[in-house]
Amino acid sequence: MARRLGLALATCLFLGFGAAAEAQPQAVKPPANDDCLACHGDPDAKRENGTSIGLDDKVFAASTHGPLACVDCHKDLATLQEFPHPEKLAKVACATCHDDEGAKYHDSIHSWAKEKAGLTAAAPACADCHGKHDIRGRDDATARVFRANIPATCGACHTGVLDQYKTGIHATTRAVGNDKAPVCIDCHTAHDIRRTDTDASRLGVTAQCGTCHAESMRTYRDTFHGQVTRLGFVQVATCADCHGAHDIFPKADARSMVSASNRVTTCRKCHADANDNFAQYDPHADRHDKARSASLYYTGKFMDGLLMTVFGLFGIHTALWLARGLRERGRAKK
After folding, report:
1. Which residues does residue 52 pair with via DSSP β-bridges, in sequence order?
2. Is 235 within a domain?
């Protein structure tokens, strides 16, 4: 009897555990890249509207994201069980991995234009600058964000600005082999691009230009314009107000805003009564440069000599007065 009860109990336990095991949901296996390439690997594959959905697996494998799985970015497909997937997928959140860059982008003019101004089709997202399945590192000469390719990448949206930049001294200097000449990101940065019409941007122009033109920034800071901007006032000329922003030319070039033929017009942007004599003002005068500013150089030397003479005479006078005072005090004690 006991033996029968034991067998019955064992059978019940076995069946119970089996039922429990069957009741537990099986882990969903996400689609592999080969599953995705079954459709997207066909270069002729297209959506209903005719746009291509083909993907070159060799290009993707050579990209920065080559080691990743498709579902690492397209996370809403990780639980997909049936193909084809819905045509409209969730947007890829690059900030999931690139959180620092994502935070900077969120505070930039591009994010503001997309999220607050409603320019969803015009304002760029990550893929517009970096690509989608062909993303390369910025040290790769084929990458959209490779230094030499930056103007073309930004110019895909800012076509008018690119045309101006191409004619300016920065682009022409790069064209003859000077890779240190600035591109867009040197002045505007990459992910935390700001509006250029804000007080902070205007006040920051001098520091940005000064990263390359340190001597010009030093002499500018010595002038009225430079001193006032240092105090935080924005209604004063900065580098871009006199030289331009994207189409900057050497002053010997007739197109330059500071050329002899355009200087009065440039000054009149702020000083309505400016004339030829007014435009002779040197905004980068240097009292240490005799060749550039001879009158200022000799005036500075005179003032240095005068200062030394005054302090020297007063020093001698003070020493003599001290000696006399000590003698008089000695006589008074006697």
Report:
1. 46
2. yes
